[in-house]
Design goal:
Elements: H1 2-26, H2 31-46, H3 50-68, H4 73-88, H5 92-110, H6 115-130, H7 134-151, H8 157-192
Helix pairs in contact: 1-2, 2-3, 3-4, 4-5, 5-6, 6-7, 6-8, 7-8
């Protein structure tokens, strides 16, 4: 933990300096400035400083939408990063909306078999799983894993992570179904007087 905090403290002024340099050299509405804002926001996000991260992500998104257009891959990246932040702060409906927008842009720009599409599908699946929407999560996990396996080698970290996420999900879903079934039988036996 101390090492991570130390790295954060060392990285923060460098990210801020990069942002300042880009703003002075390129203007405050340049896509490279949005990239610096995004990077700084991710640093704040990782440090748990969500309000600062949220403000920077919103600025980056605003620049990207105005300069690059609403269907640009960088806009999808901003939606994805904001969605992750919303998940971290318990704003699940907002996260769901942004993940869906991310997926729509990614599929349109990259096609349906791209790694960013797979990552977004995995993020959506994780969110549905967290919300207890197992039937919605399962096909998203499966599609994500299929894409990862098609475009990456089996030992790639994304493949391993997606496989582990899916395995945990399946185990938990089976446990949840068993528990639900047992609870239903217990209520039925009580109702019938057994």
């Amino acid at each position: 933990m101390y090492k991570a905090q130390s790295a954060y403290k060392q990285a923060l002024p460098l990210y801020e300096q990069a942002l300042t340099i880009r703003e002075k050299a390129l203007g405050k509405k340049h896509p490279s400035v949005a990239t610096s804002l995004n990077n700084l926001a991710l640093l704040y996000d990782a440090a748990g400083e969500y309000e600062q991260a949220w403000q920077l992500h919103k600025r980056a998104l605003s620049i990207r939408k105005k300069v690059l257009g609403k269907r640009h891959p960088d806009v999808a990246e901003s939606f994805n990063n904001l969605a992750r932040l919303y998940v971290a702060t318990g704003m699940y409906e907002e996260a769901l909306y942004l993940y869906k927008r991310t997926l729509a842009i990614a599929e349109k720009v990259y096609g349906t078999e791209h790694i960013f599409v797979a990552q977004t599908l995995n993020n959506l699946a994780l969110l549905y799983y967290a919300l207890g929407a197992y039937k919605r999560a399962k096909p998203l996990y499966e599609r994500s894993l299929k894409i990862f396996n098609q475009v990456l080698k089996p030992e790639h970290p994304h493949v391993r992570t997606a496989s582990e996420n899916y395995a945990i999900f399946l185990k938990d879903w089976e446990k949840q179904k068993t528990t639900t079934s047992q609870n239903l039988w217990a209520r039925l036996r009580k109702w019938l007087g057994f």
